[in-house]
Design brief:
The complex is a heterodimer of chains A (559) and B (207).
Chain A (H helix, E strand, L loop, with lengths): L1 H4 L11 H4 L12 H30 L8 H37 L8 H23 L13 H4 L2 H31 L12 H33 L12 H35 L6 H15 L14 H29 L8 H24 L1 H7 L3 H31 L5 H28 L13 H31 L43 H5 L4 H11 L1
Helix pairs in contact in A: 3-4, 3-5, 3-16, 4-5, 4-7, 4-8, 4-9, 4-14, 5-7, 7-8, 8-9, 8-10, 9-10, 9-11, 9-12, 9-14, 10-11, 11-12, 12-14, 12-15, 14-15, 15-16
Chain B lengths: L7 H4 L3 H8 L1 H4 L4 H29 L14 H25 L3 H27 L9 H30 L12 H26 L1
Helix pairs in contact in B: 4-7, 4-8, 5-6, 5-8, 6-7, 7-8
Classes of the chains: A mainly alpha (559), B mainly alpha (207).
Chain lengths: 559, 207
């Protein structure tokens, strides 16, 4: 406060961004990373609600074995749009675009992102992409699933498929531009004295994520360009009747879309690594291990894509390689899970909404991760490929993992973003509904899959009816669980109790500025006076420089 | 850096913030070239994807190119290749010129580069008109047109960057030995397009 308190106070200091900013700023082209982040949050959450409504409609359809709600005509379209919207317009923009935009500059003590205008451009590419998908509901929906495998995708309706391709190309461009910005910002714009190893772990996670986006997303663009030629110009890249090879599409597609899984989960790993120590009041366990494991996942994530294609006639040696590489990913991922558990072990835990969601994340992700190791194994995968086991697996990772983690992040950083506290009781109600609803909805799918119920079907064998009804009940609970969150968020944003600069008493730099931060983030230069997670460390004691013998004597005395 | 804000409503309130704010632009390092490199990594991955697709098609086909494909001419694209590669060196002279504050020299070298780029595009257009096969003739011809066409689009874009630099350099003092990001960016992009062509030419025509 030294610099600001010396200033002659001619008028009240109005720093909080929300008070200075007219609300219209949030609907126009703005270059402030915090505004862009809020724009990302709001629009991706709107798409989350749309995709969620579609999911509920699908579960409603599947409550009974016969097609009676959506019917044969609409089911595939809704299924395709649900997957596409949830991945490309909710988790990716919320996990990377929204959180990274808000947190990265603040965490490293910068005023803004490296390229603010590029940043705004990356955001404004998203709404048209979403609109195209919504428009396809009234014109013609894409029918081929979010994977859009040819030849199905080139024979199931040109207009819908083309809208899907264009939408994905826009979203891809947006995330590439974002990644360029994130990498440049992390590498070049940290405050003086902050080395890479002083960064909060979210920055590490975003570095790894951005590398993945940068390297893998363009390959999807290449695949989509070829696919659109097949669709419109009558080429036969992926059409066997013209000499093409649909497997090539699968390789190109999964070269992006497997890393996409890590693009969706790595930022969440980062969020959770940052939330747990704050509310457990303990240093993170294994900082470097978590940081390096992000990079290891980034690298391994690029060389495992064909495990999605074990049943696509992949040769044996290739299956072997991809099976081993996939299982190897369990190592860095396991390191993270163990580190998180070790972090909260023996901590002075504050069980507030953010912490509950973060712990919930660990438990969901653990289930999803373990079923991931199961499906990595070729013989098992051949058995469960395209069954509900897969649906259960990836929802445990993407919904249980990513979405739960996003909620944890929202509860944790809400005071920073809006300057107001959220209601913790309603947060806990949200958590309970979320936790119960999620497990009720997705756990039975494991069993359904093992019993052989195929995915992407509108009609199924009546023997699966009971479990499907359980899933549908769970999905209704999940849908209801968003209501307390929405009301809580909107009400708190408007009327919640004012938040101090650092309500959680956290150590990372974003908590050193006002809530919400002023326009260029820090009214006075932030000071890096401790590591990001040095909670409960007795520095005075260490400074005494006990000799090794004294230390050993102390240990012996405690034994 | 106590004046951590450029917001005029705040800086105008006290003078010592103004003083640091004035020096702000020197302290703020330029990240744009770094960003261009990141962008080029992404670009190269699109090409890598397309090249890999081509090589896979080729590897899994029993006969390549598929029977009945007319022979591709090597002389014209060969000349084109030489023109494009040399244009990179020509362009580099332009960059050297601006580093010695020689705007006229830069304009001359960049103008020559633009001309060479245009000749390359014209050559490619001529080649397209005389290949004797269409986009949908077979898998080889499809990949041929998509790969060369996609690269051609990049040449067009690179060419427009050069023309943009030339147009902007009409304003005196726009580029100098200190400040010439546009020139460096255009040059980097042009070299990138050049390198892609070398790989493309090798796998499509020679290999």
């Amino acid at each position: 406060m030294s610099a600001t308190s010396l200033e002659p106070k001619t008028e009240p200091h109005k720093s909080p961004a929300t008070e200075d900013r007219p609300w219209t700023d949030y609907f126009t082209f703005q270059t402030d990373h915090k505004v862009i982040a809020i724009q990302y949050f709001v629009i991706s959450f709107v798409f989350y609600l749309i995709g969620g409504a579609m999911a509920t409609a699908m579960r409603g359809e599947l409550a009974t074995p016969n097609p009676d709600l959506l019917g044969y005509d609409n089911y595939n379209g809704v299924l395709t749009l649900h997957g596409t919207i949830m991945i490309f317009l909710w988790i990716v923009p919320a996990g990377t675009g929204a959180f990274a935009n808000y947190l990265l500059p603040l965490m490293i003590g910068a005023k803004d992102m490296a390229f603010p205008r590029l940043n705004a451009l990356a955001f404004w590419i998203l709404p048209p992409a979403g609109v195209m998908l919504i428009v396809s509901l009234v014109t013609e929906t894409p029918q081929a699933g979010w994977t859009s495998y040819p030849p199905l995708s080139v024979t199931s309706g040109q207009l819908g498929e083309m809208l899907w391709i264009l939408s994905l190309l826009l979203v891809g461009t947006s995330s590439i531009l974002g990644a360029i910005n994130f990498i440049t910002t992390i590498i070049n714009m940290r405050i003086k004295d902050m080395t890479l190893f002083d960064m909060p772990l979210y920055c590490w996670a975003m570095l790894a994520t951005s590398i993945l986006v940068l390297v893998s997303t363009p390959v999807l663009a290449g695949a989509l360009i070829l696919l659109s030629f097949d669709l419109i110009a009558g080429t036969a890249f992926f059409n066997p009747t013209g000499g093409g090879d649909p497997i090539v599409y699968q390789h190109l597609f999964w070269f992006y879309s497997h890393p996409a899984v890590y693009i969706m989960i790595l930022p969440i790993f980062g969020l959770v690594s940052d939330i747990l120590p704050v509310h457990a009041r303990k240093p993170i366990f294994g900082y470097r291990a978590i940081a390096y494991s992000s990079l290891a996942i980034c690298f391994l994530g690029l060389v495992v894509w064909a495990h999605h294609m074990f049943t696509s006639g992949t040769p044996g040696w290739l299956r072997m390689f991809f099976m081993i590489a996939t299982m190897a990913i369990a190592v860095p991922t396991g390191i993270k899970v163990f580190s998180w558990v070790a972090t909260i072990w023996g901590g002075k835990i504050r069980l507030n909404s953010a912490m509950l969601f973060a712990i919930g994340f660990i438990s969901f992700f653990l289930v999803g991760g373990l079923s991931g190791v199961m499906v990595a194994s070729v013989p098992f995968d051949i058995h469960v490929h395209d069954t509900y086991f897969i649906v259960a697996h990836f929802h445990y990772v993407l919904f249980g993992g990513s979405v739960t983690g996003i909620y944890a992040g929202l509860y944790h950083w809400f005071p920073k973003m809006t300057g107001r506290m959220m209601n913790d009781t309603w947060g806990k109600v949200h958590f309970v509904l979320h936790f119960v609803g999620f497990n009720l909805c997705f756990f039975p799918m494991h069993i359904l899959g093992l019993q052989g119920m195929p995915r992407r079907v509108v009609q199924y064998n009546p023997e699966f009816a009971t479990l499907n009804m359980v899933c549908t009940v769970g999905s209704v609970l999940l849908a209801i669980s968003t209501i307390p969150f929405l009301i809580n968020a909107v009400w708190s944003w408007l009327y919640g109790p004012k938040a101090s600069a650092n309500p959680w008493k956290a150590l990372t730099l974003e908590w050193q500025t006002a809530s919400p931060p002023p326009i260029e983030n820090f009214d006075e230069e932030p000071v890096l006076w401790s590591g990001p997670y040095e909670y409960g460390i007795d520095f005075d004691r260490e400074a005494d420089e006990l000799s090794v013998r004294d230390l050993l004597a102390e240990v012996k005395a405690e034994m | 850096m106590t004046g951590s804000t450029l917001d005029p409503s705040q800086t105008s309130l006290n003078y010592h913030h103004d003083a640091t704010a004035a020096g702000h632009h020197e302290e703020h390092p330029d990240h744009r070239i770094f960003g261009i490199y990141m962008f080029l990594i992404a670009e190269s991955m699109i090409f890598l994807g397309l090249f890999t697709a081509y090589l896979t098609f080729r590897a899994v086909s029993p006969v390549w190119p598929p029977p009945g494909t007319p022979e591709t001419e090597l002389l014209l694209p060969g000349i084109n290749t030489i023109i494009l590669i040399s244009s990179s060196f020509v362009m580099n002279q332009g960059n050297r010129a601006i580093k010695q504050n020689n705007v006229a020299g830069m304009r001359a070298w960049f103008g020559a580069t633009a001309l060479m780029g245009a000749i390359f595009l014209a050559g490619q257009g001529y080649e397209y008109a005389h290949t004797g096969f269409g986009l949908t003739t077979n898998l080889f011809t499809s990949t041929f047109y998509v790969l060369t066409g996609f690269h051609g689009l990049h040449v067009c874009f690179g060419l427009s960057l050069i023309l943009l630099v030339l147009w902007r350099s009409l304003k005196p003092g726009r580029y100098s030995s200190e400040s010439h990001f546009g020139i460096e960016a255009a040059e980097l992009y042009w070299h990138f397009v050049d390198i892609v062509w070398i790989v493309l030419f090798t796998i499509l025509y020679l290999f």
